[in-house]
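U., I forgot to send this yesterday:
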Amino acid sequence: METRVTVLITVSAALAGAVLGAWGSASYLRAPERVVAAYHRWYHANGATTFNNTFWLGIPTQKCPLDTWTYQEILAETKPDVLVETGTYKGGSSFFYASIFDLMKHGRIITVDIEDYPGKPPHERIQFLMGSSTSDEVLRKVRDSIRPGEKVMVALDSDHHKDHVGRELALYSPLVSPGMYLVVEDTHFNGHPILPHHGPGPMEAVDEFVAAHPEFVIDRSREKFGMTFNPRGWLKRVK
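Result:
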């Protein structure tokens, strides 16, 4: 009798656990943003096999493939003459943009970094500039490289502290043509949802900028894949 009671208790506990587990899983899945955030944190925590192990034609990009696909869609839709990028690193993202421009037979990239990493891929559509993106000299070179009437898009991916991103937004937003995009990278810092102890970063800079610049709107449609390194960071100039 005692054995039977023990078995019944064990079976009942197992069934209750299964029911609660199923309910918990269903409840969790009813909040997809929690699932995306959990995956996002896992993806960042495993950078050695994810974003630091992502290449375009052999060149490291350090970008989420979902975001590079979104860039491809934006380039095809808006057809910028010039894409200005801050934060070259090893040139993988510039090389990706240049490859898309090759397929389109249109467009070029001006990319800026404070460091000259070896092995950057040479390409006739890429102009590499050395120096701080917020320096007067670099900004003058960027402006001088843009011809009158050209449609300009900007991607900011250098220092991710709020003050620096805010300065870049102030300096580079006037270059963006109406209908074109200003992309602020890595707005997922400072707990959005990764690196909660980073301190104010790109998203905080974006929120302040958009509040003061109604000519730019946050295009959440560019987050259609659920996970993006740039939540609230896809800004479109509407006027």
